[in-house]
Amino acid sequence: MQGLAHQLIAGIATGGIYASVALALVMIYQSTHHLNFAQGEMATFSTYIALTLIQAGLPYWVAFAATLVISFGIGVFTERILLRPMHNASVLANVGVFIGLLLVFRNAMGWMFEYTIKSFPSPFESDTPLLGGLVSGHELGSTAVTLVVLGLVFVFFRYTKLGLAMRAAAFNASSSKLVGIRVGWMLALGWGLAATIGAIAGMMIAPVVFLEPNMMLGILLYAFAGALLGGIDNPGGAVIGGFAVGVIENLGGAYLVGTELKLTLALVIIICVLLVKPSGLFGRVVQSRV
Q1: For 211-227, what is the mean pLDDT?
Q2: In terms of CB atoms within 10 Å, which of 33, 156, 179, 190 comes out highest?
């Protein structure tokens, strides 16, 4: 029973990471109707920046805050310089750009930071068992950080003028322009916010899986499964889906398929959702007249 409880709590902790990345994916999808295949590489690049700042002597939380600012700038720059010209391009052209962006970030990390596996510090390490030994200090701390971030994002989009403007621009760009909303900049800010959320996820997962250029490859797949499960057009649903995938992954890996085949569970979830309910559990079915 204690083993089951540990797997459940650990699943919630990792599910929070998946929920964050899933939210970042949905934010960009709502605005562009494209999936950012480079989301994981952007998060990993930000984590390398954080490690560089920490090794330079900055306290962890100072480096954490500085990384979020830099990541936001990278996201805005990426949208305005690289993706803005592709606004009216075909779906295939946009997919090519996203894959190219993935390769650029991955190879840039190998060139700048090398391909060797690096350890990343955690500010939540504890020598004493927590909750009767069911959870580690890092799992508890990273879950708290994730919940705070998700709460702040909810408040931002629900109760601030800028957040409401970004939601309006994502929902109906044409009508938003008529009321004076600068849709182009709302999209750029959305990219910046998605990059920031991804950076937080990267810094929270790096102490567990270690830091290397392919660190977020499997995590992005789990996050994509969570986004599809909850609804690719529903931010709240994607968050719930991310937590659900984390729990399914841990319990399934421990009691069903083994740790070596845990990644197949994400593929099974993706296939089942696409076959049974493509809109996800909380997504909406869009009907259009021809």
Answers
A1: 89
A2: 190
Q: What are phi and psi of 281, to 5 degrees?
A: -70, -35
Catalogue all structural domains in the chain, each as residue range(s) with its CATH number: 2-115+129-276 (1.10.3470)
Contacts of 27 (CB under 8 A, 6+ apart): 170, 190, 193, 194, 197, 235
Burial track 118-135 (b if 16+ CB lie within 10 A, e otherwise)? eebebebeeeeeeeeebb
Q: What is the pLDDT of residues 86-111, one digit of tens each?
A: 777 787 888 888 888 999 999 999 89
In angstroms, how far is the first alpha carbon of the chain from the final one? 56
The model's pTM: 0.88
How far is it, in rounded angstroms, from Cα 278 to Cα 270? 9
Assigned token pair, 124: 């939540």
Strand partners, 135: 130
- The letter for the amino acid at 43 is A
Give the Cα-Cα-Cα angle 269, 19, 222 (nearest 5 degrees): 35
Distance of CA 89 to the CA centre of its chain: 25
Residue holding tokens 């004076």? 180
CA 70/CA 59 separation, integer angstroms: 16
Eight-class DSSP state of 135: B
> Encoding tokens for residue 54?
């920490």
Instruction: Quote the longest CA-to-CA distance of the chain.
Output: 64
In 3D, which of 177, 170, 175, 212 has the Cα closest to residue 191? 170
**Any bridge partners for residue 118, and if so which?**
211
The pLDDT of residue 174: 80
Residues in the chain: 290
CA 192 to chain centre: 12
Q: Quick: pLDDT tens for 128-168.
A: 656 666 677 778 888 888 889 889 988 988 889 888 888 88
Where b means 16+ CB within 10 Å and e means fewer, 169-184 reads bbeeeeebeeeebebe
